[in-house]
Automatic annotation (TrEMBL):
PANTHER family: IRON-SULFUR DOMAIN CONTAINING PROTEIN, PROTEIN TIC 55, CHLOROPLASTIC. Keywords: 2Fe-2S, Chloroplast, Iron, Iron-sulfur, Membrane, Metal-binding, Plastid, Transit peptide, Transmembrane, Transmembrane helix. InterPro entries: Cholesterol_7-desaturase (IPR050584), PaO (IPR013626), Rieske_2Fe-2S (IPR017941), Rieske_2Fe-2S_sf (IPR036922). Residues 147-252 form the Rieske domain. The chain crosses the membrane at residues 563-585. Pfam families: PaO (PF08417), Rieske (PF00355). It is found in: Plastid, Chloroplast. It comes from Hibiscus sabdariffa (roselle). This is Rieske domain-containing protein. Its main location: plastid.
Length: 597
């Protein structure tokens, strides 16, 4: 019985029920020796044209229900899989107002695993347990009916279109002649060329393949190849997306069928408070947005992974944490957390769908004045194994040190933080895609450090069915198609067309690569781009000056002039070193000193 039997299910309900009954009877009549080799069975529902039940005693089992379950005779909007509990199956309810959804459910335990769990001692005291019945309710969710953070308003280029993605949907964002933002599908209706590789001509977006031009509402207003007496075809228009600017961030509504819902547009109270100031950065990262989110809601890793990166993280401060979940909704969760040794939970964390995470804290100074601090993380999914993050740290009271250091210093330090985690998170992303099992099968989440991570993955169990793909605590829906890798994300002409390259074209110091700090951050940040250009220009000038001064010192006959010119050349070389260091700080990845290169 340690083989695998696979059969096709009949189409009719009666035959299907008979087949499942027969399969369960096979489970029931297994001898003790054969049943002991069963592990955790799984149910997977896909969208092919057949239904099959696979029983593999020596490997993780998968029941493929490939054809949609017949629903014509159902009278209630709930599906409950009710099977004998000693087989390890648990009931799963689907809450849906309009229709029945089928979902891959893998929160299952076999009899052998249940027996094994009894001998695990006190593990249940420190390890987060299985999902509750409330966690297993599937809610109505559609990923397109959400606002997604596209870009920081201050960093949107004034003179070039910007190519962006939300999941696998490619978008182009640009400012017209009046400074108004417009967003289209990044595809020319002529021959599918990327409009983000184009240019702006008199406030219009021009495709650089054949010169077609489009204006605000997506209407094509110029086709150079048309005869003078011909009209532009009506079909030569673009698919448009609604964009809104709010509190310094550009948001896009992804649905083409449902009108935008203003109430869903995030609003952050602390950012509207008098005197609130923030430092905002944007980063493109080489791992999935769900991996990024759980990393950002994991305070336990900070003392270890970011030891001495700033003035607060120290590895000797690694310790148990306290968590209290105060709110669970269809759109997220919230709660308090703090250090166990302090006996208090002063930090309030909130996650809101689809990808907004904030960590807030209130402090009262010696004069009784209350101050507000926020760490805001806006995580946009940009495709399989990719994400873009907008980070905003701020408060109503700033540290004196924050006034001393320039903004670019904090930007490069933020890049360093993400580089410290990049190796861990990229490998984590690879394992999830390879294993294709829920996180509860892979993670060992501790109650004293990983509560928010477990809460997030359990929320994915509820809403993940409405996303292109997801990895939940107990359920998964892997990507249906492999990721598309673009080998030329920016064209030659597109690079020349932008005075400040927005996409890594000609003239950038590094090839497009998400593992490279320049491409991940600098090209998306106007401030850091200007700083790198300024330091590079000064380095070139000082190098030339040092060369001239050295030549003059050689030619000078007076010792005093020789000394003066050589000292001046030395100072110029010092300036060259300082400028080179500043450029390197903004463009060079952090590498841990214990690693061999």
């Amino acid at each position: 019985m340690c083989g695998s039997q696979k059969s096709n299910l009949p189409a009719s309900n009666t035959q299907t029920s008979h087949f499942i009954t027969t399969a369960l009877f096979t489970f029931l009549t297994l001898s003790p020796s054969s049943s002991s080799c069963f592990r955790k069975p799984k149910i997977t529902i896909t969208n092919t044209n057949t239904m099959a039940l696979t029983l593999s005693p020596c490997l993780p089992r998968t029941i493929h229900l490939s054809k949609p379950l017949p629903t014509s005779k159902l009278t209630k909007p709930n599906i409950i899989f009710d099977t004998p509990s000693f087989l390890g199956f648990k009931p799963v309810s689907f809450r849906n107002n309009n229709q029945i959804r089928c979902l891959a459910v893998t929160d299952l335990k076999s009899a052998s695993s249940l027996d094994q769990s009894k001998g695990e001692g006190d593990d249940h005291k420190v390890v987060i347990g299985p999902s509750s019945e409330e966690d297993r309710i599937v809610v109505e969710y559609n990923w397109t009916e959400e606002w997604y953070p596209l870009y920081l308003t201050k960093d949107v280029p004034d003179d070039a279109p910007l190519g962006l993605t939300v999941f696998d949907q490619q978008l182009v964002l640009y400012k017209d002649g009046n400074g108004e933002l417009h967003c289209y599908q990044d595809r020319c209706p002529h021959r599918l060329a990327k409009l983000s590789e184009g240019q702006l001509v008199d406030g219009r977006l021009e495709c650089l393949y054949h010169g077609w031009q489009f204006e605000g509402n997506g209407k094509c207003v110029k086709i150079p190849q048309l005869p003078d007496d011909a009209k532009i075809p009506r079909s030569a228009c673009l698919k448009t997306y609604e964009v809104k600017e709010s509190q310094g961030v550009v948001w896009v509504w992804m649905s083409q069928t449902t009108p935008p819902v203003p109430e869903k547009l995030p609003w952050f109270e602390n950012f509207a408070r008098p005197g609130f100031q923030d430092t905002s950065t944007i980063h493109e990262l080489p791992y999935d947005h769900s991996i990024l989110l759980e990393n950002l809601m994991d305070p336990a890793h900070i003392p270890i992974s970011h030891d001495r990166t700033d003035w607060t993280a120290k590895r000797e401060d690694a310790q148990p944490l306290l968590f209290e979940v105060m709110e669970r909704t269809d759109r997220g969760f919230a709660g308090w957390w703090g250090k166990e040794k302090d006996g208090s939970m002063p930090n309030f964390l909130r996650f809101d769908a689809p990808c907004v995470l904030q960590n807030n804290r209130e402090l009262v100074d010696k004069d009784g004045e209350k101050h507000y601090f926020t760490g805001l993380f806006l995580c946009r999914p940009t495709g399989q194994g990719k994400s873009m993050l907008i980070v905003r740290f701020g408060g109503t009271k700033r540290s004196p040190l924050a006034k001393i250091f320039p903004k670019w210093y904090f930007h490069q330090n933020a890049s360093k933080v993400f580089e410290q985690d990049m190796g861990f998170l990229s490998s984590q992303n690879e394992v999830l895609l390879k294993e294709k099992v829920p996180t509860k099968e892979l993670y060992l989440n501790l109650k004293s450090s990983d509560t928010w991570v477990a809460e997030y993955r359990k929320w994915m169990d509820k809403a993940g069915h409405g996303m292109p793909y997801h990895f939940g605590h107990s359920t998964i829906s892997p990507p249906k198609l492999p990721a598309v890798v673009e080998h030329a994300p920016a064209g030659l002409v597109a690079g020349f067309s932008a005075s400040s390259p927005a996409k890594g074209g000609i003239g950038t110091m590094h090839a497009p690569n998400l593992a490279n700090r320049y491409f991940r951050h600098v090209i998306h940040c106007k401030g850091c781009s200007s700083v790198v250009k300024a330091f590079t220009a000064w380095k070139d000038r000082l190098s030339a000056a040092a060369l001239v001064l050295t030549a003059l010192a050689i030619l000078a006959s007076s010792k005093q002039w020789k000394a003066f010119l050589l000292v001046s050349a030395t100072l110029c070389l010092g300036g060259v070193y300082a400028c080179s260091t500043a450029v390197a700080m903004n463009t060079t990845n952090f590498i841990r000193v214990h690693r061999r290169l």
